[in-house]
Amino acid sequence: MLRTTFFTAVVAAAMFGAVTAQAQTYRAEYRLSTTLGTAFTWGQAGERWIELVKEKTQGRINIKLYSGNSLVGGEQTREFTAIRQGVIDMSIGSTINWSPQIRELNLFSLPFLMPDYKAIDALTQGEVGKDLFAVLEKRGDVIPLAWGENGFREMSNSKRPIASPADMKGMKFRVVGSPLYNETFSALGANPTQMSWADAQPALASGAVDGQENPLSVFVAAKLPTVGQKYLTLWHYVADPLIFVVNKQVWNSWTPADREAVRQAALQAGRENVEKARKGIAGNDNAVLKQIEAAGVTVTLPTAAQRDAFVQATRPVYDKWAKTIGADLVKKAEAAIAKR
Ligand code: X2X
Questions:
Q1: What is the pLDDT of residues 184-207, one digit of tens each?
Q2: What's the gap in Å between 80 CA and the centre of ligand 1?
Q3: What's the pLDDT tens digit per position in 166-179?
Q4: Domain coverage including residue 149
Q5: Does the beta carbon of 67 sit less than 6 angstroms from any atom of ligand 1?
Q6: Which residue of 38, 167, 183, 254 is 20 to 30 Å from 211, comparing CA positions?
Q7: Ligand 1 within 6 A of 314 CB?
Q8: 63 ligand 1 Cβ < 6 A
Q9: Probe residue for ligand 1, chosen from 67, 106, 197 as the CB with the greatest number of ligand atoms within 8 Å
Q10: Could you tell me where the DSSP H helices lie in the chain?
Q11: CA–centroid distance, residue 259 to ligand 1 (Å)
């Protein structure tokens, strides 16, 4: 009798201890940041990651989505710093938005580095992807888990069809807040202005800027033809992969089994996100383009010679930034793309 009571007490104490330990380390809710919301594939990837984590951890890890970079007042280029500082626990972020803090991520913004989807995959799914994850973990204090995709960035404007750098002369473009974009658009003869996505939409609507560049899926979901973006040039000059990350301290507060569950959830949500981001755009499936043309947009597909004029005009910017990114990393990326 006495022994049984003692045993029960020990078990109870152990169980209670486990519960308190969990209560101390696991928060009731974790904050996941994205730039675009659930009307876009990017925000939908956030919802999916949350759902899969909940399922795979039997509800131990609950996450809330903060889209529009609302935890940093919409300032998407400050997101990475906020993850590092623990203001944001998890994120699905764009390589463009994090490149002011992690210079190697400018790789994907080198003009005309990646000619097609296979080239993106050759980087993200190969050695280059691993190298970038190592950089993020070492210098960024985050745990990178999986790749997603925003897409190839195409240029639109309200003024005229663009088939050459000369057509861009003096045109005002909203660009993302990475200095490489300013230099690229200046090299093309345009007049770039850096602003957040939150500021870009009213600026396009009021005509404060003439054009912008974003993936076709964003162009459609943000209804850019309704704010006068009537000319679209398919030049595929850069593409921005997305990266699923968790703040290092938050990661370390979870059990190894839960970490693995979060990783598997990210990998699955990432794969689904890439597939969704390419749907209607890749290969012969051009449903998205048809939808854009139906909205009265004039679509320009530059010829090889026309495309080459954009490549030549931006080559000095490429060469300059290759040094900033790291000559070895850029060479490795070029070799992986050549072999794809
Ligand atoms: O701001 C943009 O253009 C967007 C939404 O594509 C990014 O966050 C990079």
A1: 999 999 999 999 999 999 999 999
A2: 14
A3: 999 999 999 998 89
A4: 27-338
A5: no
A6: 38
A7: no
A8: no
A9: 197
A10: 2-25, 41-56, 79-85, 95-98, 117-124, 127-140, 179-187, 197-206, 216-221, 248-252, 256-278, 287-294, 304-325, 327-339
A11: 29
Q: How far is the CA of 11 from the centre of ligand 1 (A)?
A: 53
Any domain includes 22: no
CA 214–ligand 1 middle distance (angstroms): 7
Scored b (16 or more CB within 10 A) or e, 299-329 reads bbebeeebbebbeebbeebbeebbeebbeeb
Task: Please indicate, yes or no, if residue 291 is contained in any of the structural domains.
Answer: yes
pLDDT of 8 over the 80 cut: no
Within-domain flag for 235 = yes
Which residue do the tokens 């944001």 mark?
88
Give the CATH number, domain containing residue 91: 3.40.190.170
pLDDT confidence of residue 282 = 72
**Atom of ligand 1 at shortest range from CA of 200:** 1
User: CB count, 10 Å around CB of 100?
Assistant: 18
Residue 309 located in a structural domain: yes
Task: Please tell me the total count of domains within the chain.
Answer: 1
Average pLDDT (24-40) is 94
**Ligand 1 pocket mutation, candidates 33, 34, 35, 41, criterion most atoms within 8 A of CB:** 35
pTM summary value: 0.93
- Of ligand 1's listed atoms, the one at least distance from the Cα of 213 is 3
